[in-house]
Amino acid sequence: METFKLVLPEHLNHYGFLFGGNMLKWVDEAAYIAATIEFPGCNFVTVGMDKVEFRKSICQGSIVRLHAQQSSLGRTSVTYLVEVHARELQKSNEDIVFSTHITFVCVDNCGKKVAIAERQNSVCPIRSMLQGPPQ
Ligand SMILES: CC(C)(COP(=O)(O)OP(=O)(O)OC[C@H]1O[C@@H](n2cnc3c(N)ncnc32)[C@H](O)[C@@H]1OP(=O)(O)O)[C@@H](O)C(=O)NCCC(=O)NCCS
Fold first, then answer.
1. Domain extent listing, the chain
2. Which candidate among 31, 51, 70, 75 keeps its CA 20 to 30 Å from the CA of 116?
3. Phi then psi for 109, rounded to 5 degrees?
4. Ligand 1 pocket, 75 CB below 6 A?
5. Rounded Cα–Cα distance for residues 28 and 10 (Å)
């Protein structure tokens, strides 16, 4: 799944580049959306993120592309590889600027972990209505 973001002034640190905390929020959000779409009926919380290393700064006006792909599936958890690419204003090529693995755990209404397979079989009727009929 792919999500795009535009780097605006409110996303910058005091040096004028993308603030790392915003990048991590976008990574968490992109992978969460992918997991939620891929496993209807599951409520996910983030349990962990692997290596966090910012090797390239990102300028205002850049278009950031986040690509989230499932990399492993456990009993209660699912892990996504998120790769972040950035394209600077008026440049045609994009660079990979960040990547990490992020893991979510499926929880019940009390916040206790629950098997993903168990929740997938109990899709909330309101959620199914919002998602529309199967294609
Ligand atoms: C997530 C939470 C429900 C896990 O509960 P728990 O009983 O401690 O769970 P466990 O340690 O048994 O781990 C559950 C699963 O997560 C995996 N896991 C635990 N810690 C992990 C980590 N750091 N990285 C990757 N996977 C991890 C386990 O391998 C297990 O996977 P599996 O069932 O697919 O084999 C609990 O820790 C929690 O509520 N955390 C707060 C979540 C939150 O608020 N997130 C927002 C960030 S502030």
1. 2-131
2. 51
3. -65, -20
4. yes
5. 19
Ligand 1 pocket member 116 (CB < 6 A):
no
Q: How many C-beta atoms surround the C-beta of residue 86 within 10 A?
A: 22
**For a substitution probing ligand 1, which of 27, 47, 70 has the most ligand atoms within 8 Å of its CB?**
47
**Ligand 1 midpoint to CA 95 (Å):** 32
Q: Which residue's alpha carbon is nearest to atom 48 within ligand 1?
A: 46
Q: For 50-60, write each residue's pLDDT tens digit.
A: 999 999 999 99
Q: How far apart are CA 50 and CA 31, in angstroms?
A: 13
Strands ordered across the beta sheet of 95-107: 2-6, 63-73, 77-87, 95-107, 43-49
pTM of the predicted structure, to 2 decimals: 0.90
- Which CATH topology does 2-131 take? Thiol Ester Dehydrase; Chain A (3.10.129)
Query: d(Cα 81, Cα 22) in Å, to the nearest integer?
Result: 18
Q: Whose CA is nearest to atom 3 of ligand 1?
A: 113
Ligand 1 and 27: CB distance under 6 A = no
